[in-house]
Amino acid sequence: MNTDESLKEIVRQKYSEIALQDKEANQSSCCGSGCCSTEVYNIMTDEYNGIEGYNPDADLGLGCGLPTQFAKIKKGDTVIDLGSGAGNDCFVARAETGESGKVIGIDFTEAMIDKARTNAEKRGLNNVEFRFGDIERMPVTANVADVIVSNCVLNLVPNKDGVFKEIYRVLKPGGHFSISDVVLVGELPGELQNDAVMYAGCVSGAVQKNEYLELIERNGFKNIILQKEKAIVIPDDILKNYFDEEGLQKFKTGNTGIFSITLYAEKPSAKQESESCCVPGSACC
Questions:
Q1: How many angstroms separate the CA atoms of 152 and 260, rounded?
Q2: How far from 171 is each of 61, 81, 176, CA to CA, in Å?
Q3: 8 Å CB contact between 68 and 178
Q4: How many domains does the chain have?
Q5: Which of 19-33, 105-119, 127-141, 204-218 has the lowest average pLDDT?
Q6: Which residues share a beta bridge with 184?
Q7: Which of 59, 100, 222, 259 lies most in the core, judged by the most C-beta atoms within 10 Å?
Q8: Mean pLDDT of the chain
Q9: Mind listing the pLDDT tens digit for each residue in 46-58?
Q10: Domain of 164?
Q11: pLDDT digits 0-9 by tens, 267-282
């Protein structure tokens, strides 16, 4: 059985391999090494073309949405990107927050941090920084971020509750997040659920959509809004690695749905927290 730490090590190894390749190479393999299929990481991606701040060098095709597009970033904001990869969403956020703001990317893969820092240096962006760390224990002090974004990362984290607690801690009162992620409706077959490659490919680490929403609410966030939702279709050439023909048809006609969602939620303001007397982890909660 995979433990939380072993799952995180699987992700770290896979994404270290991916960091050393370009987008085209990643989109022609399923695990960063050309081992088993034509697509897995790119079945969820959205196109960034035309979005200010987008730079193809920093786009490894690993996202499942466009959270920065929905994040309501203002000039001068401090923005944190969880699982920042090669820096793509950080650079888009930098275009929104401008020279007076600050963008911090956090990633636990050293190869990704190195790649992101190189990309930032090429662009001369002195208010974008990348920190090595685990988003379950962010290397950031409390109440510093106006906005937090993340693109297809929390599904890779075993302790999702811990991440939302950290998001709450790091956001300023009245701050908000916009997160794109993968969720399920219906049970994922065991063949997919137990596979390490599918975990690193963002599918088998996903939880039920209603569980995901309840987790956000339980951690004290308010004004939760589903900003975007789209179905994800896993190509047959991937599924045939897990099912025979009968099993493949059963899965495709079954009730399991895999979705990319983008969610917005707010940390209550200081006044709202005072009025409710209910900060996550306090005695009144």
A1: 8
A2: 27, 12, 7
A3: yes
A4: 1
A5: 19-33
A6: 208, 258
A7: 59
A8: 83
A9: 778 889 998 888 8
A10: 4-269
A11: 999 888 777 655 555 5
